[in-house]
Amino acid sequence: MIEPLPVFRRPPGPDEPVALGADAETLRSLEDLQCSYGNVVAVSTPNGRQSFFLNDPEDIRSILVTNHSKYIKGPGFERVKMLLGNGLIVSDGAAWRRSRTMVTPAFTRRNLHKLISLIVQCCERSSQRWAKLAAAGEPVNITKEMTDYALEVILSAIFGPDFDSKIIVDGDNPFAFLSQDSSRDLKFVLRLRALRELVFNIIDERRQSVPVEHYDFLSMYMSAEDKSGEKYSDDELLNEIMTLIIAGFETSSGILNWAWYLIARHPNVDAKLFQEAREQVPDADSVNSQSIAELKYFHQVLEETMRLYPPVWLFSRRAIKDDTLADYDIRAGTDIYISPYILHHSEQYWPDPEKFDPERFAAQETKEKKDRRQVAYTPFSLGPRRCIGEYLAILEMKIHLGLLLQQFQMTTTTDVQPELDIGVNLRTKEDICLRPTLRTLN
After folding, report:
1. CA 379 – CA 360 distance, rounded (Å)
2. Are 152 and 46 within 8 A, CB to CB?
3. What pLDDT, in 10s, does the model give residues 358-384?
4. What is d(CA 433, CA 413) in angstroms, rounded to the nearest whole number?
5. Nearest-CA neighbor of 358 among 405, 423, 313, 308?
6. Given strand 140-141, what is the order of strands in its sheet?
7. What is the DSSP letter of 224?
8. In 303-404, beta strands by DSSP E
9. SS3 string of 286-305?
10. How far apart are CA 40 and CA 327, in angstroms?
11. Long-range CB contacts (< 8 A, 24+ apart) of 352-361?
């Protein structure tokens, strides 16, 4: 007797193909699909690829954590690879494991805490600019300020003393266009590639000079070795540095842009943050790893900001082996789409999901709520490929907000809510401008 072939358990989904990409139409399509078919949806794309859209926390954890070895990066990363080369964000398999192992020491908390004074200096320069605007009654373009601040932090953290001596020439920063141009088109790619020569020249000069003991990412990356004792090739090193520059400033700048806006819209949150900042970091000299860790309400505010506006709203994986979810089968070659934005806005997991409520992340939550939150919350992804720069981003955001918020109270200049500019990241279509008022400190 011939055994019948097993039935392929396919999730529900539309018969017609659906175009999926990093754009507003895709977000609307995925929201409609989730509403119509549930948290596991089968979709075919116009090019004939079979895809699943997942919005179930346990299924997402299965893909990203439990069975992560059965998946590689999915559609959409080709564009990132064109931009950054085969760096940590886009590489897979042995190349990714090698690079992740090599750069991990640079991101230990002990090493990142060496950057605190550098971050404080960047905050002080922001404070000086804002004080002049406040005195003149002028608004702060918070979107521009946050991109400039985050770019200054990551470039200083990468190049150390070379930032002032070799990057900034006659007051001009050749990387400035990264914070000014959000197009990410071919012209942008060509401008970014032209900077590789500048970075390589700095690398070459360091190799020719007497080693100086100081911490920065470039020195850590240049000395990093794999298990066989080999260092990065020139191309590999350049790919990783360019990846760190782009990823290192876009994430924190976008989150801070939304955070300042949300704080300005919620005076009760502003008041609570102000009180905590005065207690924990009353001045620049008090900023250290311990005082930063005590900015617990600041952490809640950042977590809630990332729930509403996750830095990457959509990412994908591609199955390289057959796999199963609880009720469905995944065949090798299937593309998996996951949207932290839709997950974070799902009423099934987050009561009143459109409300800005940092208390969701309070420490006194019950274990049941914490467990639910942890699996339904993926602003930095999950599993082995969770963002390696997560702690650095939180560190620089908490320092920035902690120091600046106790000096300035921000209010909105309009009641119109910013519209989303949906690309790889969640930006605002128009820059957010806020009105700063100098606080009276007693």
Report:
1. 15
2. no
3. 999 997 556 655 555 557 999 999 999
4. 7
5. 308
6. 140-141, 433-438, 408-412
7. -
8. 315-319, 323-324, 329-330, 335-338
9. HCCHHHHHCCHHHHHHHHHH
10. 10
11. 354/308, 356/262, 356/265, 356/266, 356/269, 356/304, 356/305, 356/308, 357/304, 358/269, 358/297, 358/300, 358/301, 358/303, 358/304, 359/300, 360/300, 360/303, 360/304, 360/307, 361/299, 361/300, 361/303, 361/304
- 296's CB contacts (< 8 A; 6+ apart) are 276, 363
Nearest to 21 by CA among 312, 333, 314: 314
**pLDDT score, position 159:** 95
Q: Does CATH place domain 24-438 in 1.10.630.10?
A: yes
* Burial label, 439 (beta-carbon count in 10 A; 0-12, 13-18, 19+): middle
- List all residues 6 or more positions away from 380 whose beta carbon is below 8 Å from its beta carbon: 311, 386, 387, 390
Query: Are 150 and 396 contacting, i.e. CB atoms less than 8 angstroms apart?
Result: yes
* Cβ pair 287, 116 in contact under 8 A: yes
pLDDT given at position 192: 81
Q: What is the pTM of this model?
A: 0.93
Q: Which residues face 52 on adjacent strands?
A: 42, 336
The CB-side HSE value for 336 (13 A sphere, CA atoms) comes to 31
- pLDDT(127) > 80: yes
The three-state secondary structure class of 270 is: helix
Does residue 258 sit in helix, strand or coil? helix
- Give the Cα separation of 67 and 84 in Å (integer): 27
Residue spans of beta strands (DSSP E) within 67-120:
71-73
